[in-house]
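Changelog-adjacent note: as of this version, every example in the card shows the full chain rather than a window. The one below runs 291 residues end to end.
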Amino acid sequence: MCELLGLSSDVAATVNISLMKLAEHGGHTGPHRDGWGVAYYEGSDLRLIKEAAAAADSDWVRFVRDHDLRSPIVVAHVRKATMGERSYRNTQPFARELAGRMHLFAHNGWLADIFNAPAFQPRRFSAVGETDSERAFCVLLDRLSELWTRPGEFPSLDARLNVVSAFARELRGLGPANFLYSDGDALFAHGHRRIQAATSRVEPPGLVWLQRRCHPGEAGFAASGLSIEGAHQSVVLLASVPLTDEPWNSLSEGEVIAIREGEIAGRRLAADAQTCALEALDQFEAKSRSA
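Full-length structure tokens:
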């Protein structure tokens, strides 16, 4: 399975150390040699660097390490191919424009039946590659487009979290569905199941997270996989597995969290996602009757 890394901070931060730790899994300490990518938000746009090669041997990873790339939202991915050939178009994260903003998605798992599932036939957005992950992203954006109707206008965080949670619930029915999604304002994380090293079984947790706060005069976050300077800072770091020896928190199976500026701003548990899905279905049926 692939591995994910995400960061949300109230001040632009780097992930150089964490990215290198993730890259070690991409060919040295792990089997994920089929590609890697990292995206840094720049306002409503983003800087995306990726390649269809092992991260552990990459000159581009060393370029990222040696340059002070900073952002309040960062998403990274290393790939072990389970669907789709080893190619740039199948390398994550995936990015698309919606309502004048770049949206970003990275997935860990496999969704073998997604191409035949009636609820996962994209309408407006089409995949460039052949992966189940990109198909899922296209369908998520189709659903979010009901909210994002005008460039420059933000739907409420609660409405976005409801759509993402309902989508995650349906996605879990197709297979392991850990993902990170961002619209540049918030970072959404869904934890499901993944292959656990200790048991070799597919089970929760699918994602873990760590929050750190730095106060003026403190030494920054290098020990937590971050390189940060400056005044007060709050950071949430997400990963498929802990990247440091300190205790990390696990997302419960089916949990979705929304993170904004280094703080958890919203949360939906699996039972909440079921309610969101039923509400979304009611709204869809109501629109169909009035059409």
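Structural remarks: The longest strand covers residues 3-13.
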